[in-house]
Design goal:
This protein has 158 residues and is mostly helical.
């Protein structure tokens, strides 16, 4: 079955009554956890981006505390999962400044972790790719923010 385009869906939604729209939104939210989390962000957290960033930073920090450090293979696997979770929260926001701030925080925690990043290639490559992505995304921000975040990015270079 081929799905309709976003323009068609938008046009159809504009013709529906408010109770029918609420019913559709609730059904979509029940369908997948990601949809429910996105609805939660849009309804309750989008108005205060700073608090949202702090909440996500807390989640990332808690995951770093639980990180296994005795086996680098499992550590890297755990860090990749933490990165996926972080990117999911970034996707809800859709704000480049939020993305850069959370990615810098992730990298700062990774650099400060009691790991030998340079000695284990998968971990080193993960870290370097993140720094490259942050540097690339910095160009999309205002010049003042670029300067501040560039200084922070330089501190994270190995």
């Amino acid at each position: 079955m081929k799905s309709a385009s976003l323009a068609d869906i938008k046009k159809e939604l504009s013709h529906l009554s408010q109770p029918r729209l609420i019913e559709i939104c609730l059904r979509i939210a029940r369908f997948k956890k990601v949809n429910k989390e996105l609805a939660n962000y849009l309804l309750f957290e989008a108005h205060d981006e700073g608090a949202y960033i702090e909440k996500v930073k807390t989640i990332i920090s808690e995951r770093y505390i639980e990180m296994p450090v005795n086996n680098l293979f499992f550590t890297t696997k755990y860090l990749r999962k933490t990165l996926r979770i972080t990117k999911q929260y970034i996707q809800y926001s859709g704000n480049k400044q939020t993305e850069i701030e959370l990615m810098l925080y992730y990298c700062r925690l990774l650099k400060d972790a009691p790991l030998q990043i340079k000695k284990y290639n998968p971990l080193f490559n993960l870290y370097e790719r993140l720094l490259e992505k942050i540097a690339k995304d910095l160009s999309k921000l205002h010049e003042d923010l670029q300067y501040d975040y560039t200084k922070e990015l330089e501190k994270l270079r190995l």
